Amino acid sequence: xxxxxxxNEHVGECQLGEDGxxxxxxxxxxxxxxxxxxxxxxxxxxxxxxxxxxEITELGAGDLAESVPLCKSLxxxxxxxxxIHPGLEGSERLRETWKAAGKNEFWLFLWYPELxxxxxxxxxxx
Length: 126
Prior knowledge:
Layout: E1 2-6, E2 9-16, E3 22-23, H1 29-39, E4 48-50, H2 58-67, E5 76-78, H3 89-100, E6 108-109, H4 117-125
Parallel strand pairs: 4-5, 5-6
Antiparallel strand pairs: 1-2, 2-3
Helix pairs in contact: 1-2, 2-3
C-alpha cells in the first residue's frame, strides 16, 4: 500500500490501497473521519464523495466542515445513513460551511428528507 500521490502532492496519513480506496482501517473509529477530513483538501480533483453508512457522528460532520471549503472541486457530498441529525452542531456547521464555500446546497445530503403526508398515504395504500 502506497501513500496517495496526485501530481506530486503527498497526503500524509491517508493511504491509497490497490483497489483505489483510501485505507483508514488502522485508525480508531473516533479519528477516522478527522484524518480523512485532513486529506480532503489534497484531493484536488475530487468532485463527488459518498460517505453513506459509515457511522459518522456529529463530531465527524464538524471535522468535515473544517475541510469542505478547502476542497474546491467537491460538488456533491453524500452523508446519509450516518449518526448525523438536523439541528445539531456538527451538521449545522457543515451546512453553513458548504453554503459559505459557494457550493450548491441541493448536493449536500446529510439525511433523507421526511416524506410528506401525501406520500405516506400513497405508500400505505399501495
